Amino acid sequence: MRRVTVRNATFQQWETLLTNRTKRHRAGHVLVQGVRPITVAVESGLAVREWLVDGDRTLSSWASELTARVRAPRYAVSPELLRELGGKDDAAPEVLAVVALPDDDLARLAARAADDGAPLLAVALDRPTSPGNVGTVARSVDAFGGTASS
């Protein structure tokens, strides 16, 4: 496991995945943070390219099991740098994942009507600028009875 404790070239590449949409799409990777988003990415079959873990603490059972089950290079990152990548002022995330973006092909999504026969309610996002925007749209779709399928 490699250690990253300073803002070196490797750190700058991860930072670019967060801040530069063009380079993120060119690289074909995104930095995923949070228990639910990482779990969903893995369960959806997206390829984890790298794990970034807190090098100064023992991982939770969830993080230990996930990083052991999904083989990818692991980097022990200092809490300060993880905090920066995680966008948190108070605490560093215990794990982040560099995940391969899925193919940009809508054919991979199954379009189907709701179980009650209601017509399909679909939303397509084209390069949203903020994860918060995606969350807002997802909550709105849920409020209108939408479902997700992939």
TrEMBL record:
<dbReference type="InterPro" id="IPR054578">
    <property type="entry name" value="SpoU_sub_bind-like_N"/>
</dbReference>
<dbReference type="Pfam" id="PF22655">
    <property type="entry name" value="SpoU_sub_bind_like"/>
</dbReference>
<protein>
    <recommendedName>
        <fullName>SpoU L30e-like N-terminal domain-containing protein</fullName>
    </recommendedName>
</protein>
<dbReference type="InterPro" id="IPR029028">
    <property type="entry name" value="Alpha/beta_knot_MTases"/>
</dbReference>
<dbReference type="InterPro" id="IPR029026">
    <property type="entry name" value="tRNA_m1G_MTases_N"/>
</dbReference>
<dbReference type="InterPro" id="IPR029064">
    <property type="entry name" value="Ribosomal_eL30-like_sf"/>
</dbReference>
<feature type="domain" description="SpoU L30e-like N-terminal">
    <location>
        <begin position="8"/>
        <end position="97"/>
    </location>
</feature>
